[in-house]
Amino acid sequence: MKKASALIASHVSKSFQLDKSKAVSVLKDISLTARYGEFISILGVSGSGKSTLLKCISSLLEPTSGDVMINDVAPYKLNNRKLAKLRQENISFIFQSYNLVPALPVIENIALPLHLSHKKVNKQEIRDLLRQMKFQADMNSFVNTLSGGEQQKVAIARAILSDSQLIFADEPTGALDSTSREVIFDLLRDMANRGKCVFMVTHDIELASYTDRALVLKDGNIYKELQAPSAQDLYQALEIDKHN
Ligand SMILES: Nc1ncnc2c1ncn2[C@@H]1O[C@H](COP(=O)(O)OP(=O)(O)OP(=O)(O)O)[C@@H](O)[C@H]1O
Ligand SMILES: [Mg+2]
């Protein structure tokens, strides 16, 4: 049987009401489709709407208008219980300062989705993965005592081990040193190669050039969509002069 599209967004718009008379329009009529096995990067200057788009397409933030389908299900039409189930079974979020439980140790944070779906927790596997990610802190430390980059790694380890079909990452390498940056990127690349659908918001043009498709946002629209983008294409699309 043919697998469903991983994600379909149709005419998604998002505006925020600032006060009674003032609203700001952040996303304007965005449509996109993503397949399993695809690694998609989202780029654009600060404030162009990248994080808002990622939230809207990943079931976290209901668009003002338009439709989103994740794995053939419309998340914003579900009740809370079904929405939680959809997320638990299909989706991993790698958002800094978003989805870790501060009062739980690293290992428990990583194992949480496994516990929730009654899967076996293999501590050695967690230990090996953290070592591969060059995670320096103790596995038993509480996540609120970790640095931003270490917290990022905990979120990524959790996404990898929970085996979700869709992964949404907002600047997953933003807080990392250059070695960790490459290790984490390779893990995300590998997840896409193994058939997951991975979205990554990034300011990192070099890394984006190793994704399958880049969406460049400008003023709330997809300004450019590039298949197998080269770094050169991306610099051009972002109107950045490399030599500056
Ligand atoms: N809850 C909100 N209420 C009002 N305005 C918002 C809200 N969330 C985002 N915005 C506005 O929407 C615009 C886009 O924000 P967003 O966080 O999506 O940008 P971004 O492209 O992710 O930027 P960055 O690269 O700095 O992370 C910004 O102007 C921001 O102020
Ligand atoms: Mg952002």
Question: Can you give the mean pLDDT?
Answer: 92
Major β-sheet strand ordering: 5-6-7-3-8-9
Number of helices: 8
List each distinct ligand once: adenosine-5'-triphosphate, magnesium ion
Low-confidence runs of at least 5 consecutive residues: none
* The CATH H-level homologous superfamily: P-loop containing nucleotide triphosphate hydrolases
What summary fits the major beta sheet?
6 strands, mixed
Shape: globular
**CATH architectural category:** 3-Layer(aba) Sandwich
CATH topology: Rossmann fold
Structural class designation: alpha/beta
Beta fraction: 25-35%
Number of domains: 1
What is the string of SSEs from the N terminus onward?
Answer: EEEHEHEHHHEHEHEEH
Residues in helix, %: 25-40%
Describe the protein in words.
This protein is α/β, with parallel strands linked by helices. The chain has a single domain (5-237), classed as 3-Layer(aba) Sandwich (Rossmann fold), CATH 3.40.50. The protein is 34% helix and 25% strand. It has helices spanning 50-57, 80-90, 106-116, 123-132, 148-162, 178-193, 205-208, 231-237, and strands spanning 7-17, 23-34, 39-43, 65-70, 91-95, 166-170, 197-201, 213-218, 221-227. The strands form 2 sheets. A 6-stranded mixed sheet has the order 5-6-7-3-8-9, with helices on both faces. It has a 3-stranded antiparallel sheet with strand order 2-1-4, covered by helices on one side. The structure holds adenosine-5'-triphosphate (ATP) and magnesium ion (MG).
